[in-house]
Structures are given as structure tokens and as C-alpha cells.
Amino acid sequence: MPQQVRGVIAPGKDEPVRVETIVVPDPGPGEAVVKVQACGVCHTDLHYKQGGINDDFPFLLGHEAAGVVESVGAGVTDVAPGDFVILNWRAVCGQCRSCLRGRPQYCFNTHNAKQRMTLLDGTELSPALGIGAFAEKTLVAAGQCTKVDPSVSPAVAGLLGCGVMAGIGAALNTGNVGRGDSVAVIGCGGVGDAAIVGARLAGAAKIVAVDIDDRKLATAKTMGATHTVNSRTEDAVEAVRALTGGFGADVVIEAVGRPETYKQAFYARDLAGTVVLVGVPTPDMKLELPLIDVFGRGGALKSSWYGDCLPSRDFPMLIDLHQQGRIDLAAFVTETIALDEVEKAFARMHEGDVLRSVVAF
Ligand code: APR
Ligand code: ZN
Ligand code: ZN
């Protein structure tokens, strides 16, 4: 029987979001219905609301979530009702060229639920990143569910569904930070701070946090930064070089998504260093660099999408590390809020004192 639950809808471009009754169908083949327990508020939800992703309104927002599988459709064997899962927005196909070449992070056939959730009048909803988890229950592809240790708090587990995984993965998976490396992280919001956590986990000897906001730098220190640079008052490139024996960092992670900070990352790295772009630029942004400087420096320029994560590998591992006290994911949960407070959380995002607001059910 299709169920009626409450969910947060973005009705049209730049219109305030609101809670509506939505209809969740029974899971079809390969699908699962998940009772959502927590869902973080991410910038991408705001971009959907602003019409910055596409025009397929109305959206059912929310995509950084954990919950319990309620029911599964035909052919689902990897998860079962009662399993505690983190949702992911890249369920890989296992069959495309990228998957077959052992690079499922680049799968171009990722799948979501085939059926659609609707409003009461039958209007089809577009779930944010194929998830739509600002809702008491949501319909996803079973492959979007990854089982993890159920003793972790849902608010913490859900973080790995997007931003925190993107940051940790930028350091561990994309940047390949190694023992003793020097790392600089430019932009210390939730994603940059998670990159700091990842760098520390990897055994980086120096972790330089760069931001324009002293409050962010103070938090970055608690996350594991060994040095901080306020790039409003100091030259970021000079400061990072000075802190790394004049060389630049082995790995520089850009977690803002702007040309000027990318340029800083480019020049703040060691000649053979790696730049990882995890901040998401807008389509109109252009980067201008002297080609001779690209030529004259070795190393690698990489982008990190979803932290190059493999949910089935990375989610349980990071939850285990958190449960053992070796990383502190709870530090990213600034506040838990109710379903009808998502609009307020969007406003707070801009005030700069929130790493993550998490809707708890
Ligand atoms: N130089 C250094 N830091 C900057 C600059 C700048 N010019 N401009 C902004 N920042 C800092 C902000 O002060 C803030 O601490 O970047 C940080 C951005 O943090 P958030 O707004 O909290 O964003 P976050 O969730 O961390 O995401 C960062 O990664 O995944 C992407 O879409 C996401 O592009 C976004 C980026
Ligand atoms: Zn694939
Ligand atoms: Zn997100």
C-alpha cells in the first residue's frame, strides 16, 4: 500500500521550502523504502531550491541521510527490512566501462529508484540527488543503501552520505595523503574540516588550514589542523610555503570552489604536489593560469567528486573508526532541527557558524 508521509518540498525557483504530504509507493524490483532517522542540510539542497541544478520542480529535498530499511522489492538481497543504512547518491552499476575497469567511482550508469514519489494530487516529485530524505520515509534504489554498525547515532551516520564523505575522501581517496605529508586545506567549512580529519587519519605531519574567517580557523584546529592561516590578512601561498620549508604542501585541497582559491591551491603546492578540487564551482567560473606554470610543475591536478568514495567500502570503515574514537564525526553536527526548520537552516548556513544542521526524526 502506498504510504502518506511528511516531506520538505521546494515548489519552484527561489520559493521558500515547505512541508507537504507526499505519497511513497511500495518498493518495486530493486527498490527499498527507508524510514529516515536523520538527514543533514547540504548546500546542494539550497542549490536545488534556487533552481541552480535543474528546473525539475517540485523537488523533494534532502540527500545526506541514514535510517532503517522498512521494506524491499523483488530481487533485493543486499539489504533487508530492519537494516540500519546510510544512503548514497551514486549507486554504481558494476557493468559500464568505468566499473569494468575497476574505477566504479566514475560509473556513468548510477541508478536511483525507478518509481516516483508524488504529491497527493499525483504531481511527480524529483528527489534531490535521487534520494529525497527530508521525509519520514523515502523510496530509493536498494543499491543506494549501505549497511553500517547500528550502534552509531543516525545524525552522525547520515553525514557520510554527502559533505563529510566528500571532504574525508578528498584527502584519503583523491589526494592519497600519506604518512608524514604536508597538507593545506583552503576553505574550512564542513567539507574542508572533513578533509582535515581525513588528512590527520592518513598520518599527515603538517595540516595547514586556510580560511578568511577566524571562527572557521578555530574550529579547524579542533579538527586536527596543526597551523592556521587567515588569507584575508596573510598571503595564503607565501604562508603555506613558509610553513613547509619553502616548498609548498604535498597535497593542497581546495574546498571553496572559486578560481582565486584554486589559484592559491595551485601555487601553494610543492612542485611535485597534488591539488585536489573538492569545492564545486559554478558553470560560469573561469580559471586563468600561465600555461608555463602548469608545464613547469609536475604532480597532479585532480578533482574529487563525492570524495571518490565507494560507499560499500568507505561508509562502514569510517563508522567503525568513529565508534573506536579515532575520528570524531559528531563534531560536525552543530544542531539538530525539526523537519519544518529546513528553511531556517538554509539561512543559518550563510551566517557561518554552522557546520551541519541535521534534521532528526
Ligand atoms: N578563501 C578562503 N576561504 C574561503 C574563501 C576564500 N576566498 N571564501 C570562503 N571561504 C571559506 C568560508 O569562510 C567557509 O569556511 O570557505 C568555507 C566554505 O564553507 P561552507 O560554506 O560551510 O561550505 P562547505 O559545506 O564546506 O562546502 C564547500 O565544497 O562540496 C563543496 O558545494 C560545496 O562548494 C562547496 C564547498
Ligand atoms: Zn558503472
Ligand atoms: Zn550534499
Could you give a quick summary of the protein structure above?
This protein has 361 residues and is of the alpha/beta class.
Describe this structure in words.
This protein is of the alpha/beta class and 361 residues long. The chain is built from eleven helices and 18 strands. Strands 3, 5, 6, 9, 10, 17 and 18 form a seven-stranded mixed beta sheet that branches. Strand 12 (206-211), helix 6 (214-223) and strand 13 form a beta-alpha-beta unit. The longest helix is centred in the C-terminal third of the chain and has 13 residues, at 311-323. The two termini are 22 Å apart. The mean pLDDT is 97. Bound molecules: adenosine-5-diphosphoribose (APR) and zinc ion (ZN) (2 copies). Keywords: Metal-binding, Oxidoreductase, Zinc. InterPro entries: ADH-like_C (IPR013149), ADH-like_N (IPR013154), ADH_Zn_CS (IPR002328), ER (IPR020843), GroES-like_sf (IPR011032), MycoS_dep_FDH (IPR017816), NAD(P)-bd_dom_sf (IPR036291). Belongs to the zinc-containing alcohol dehydrogenase family.
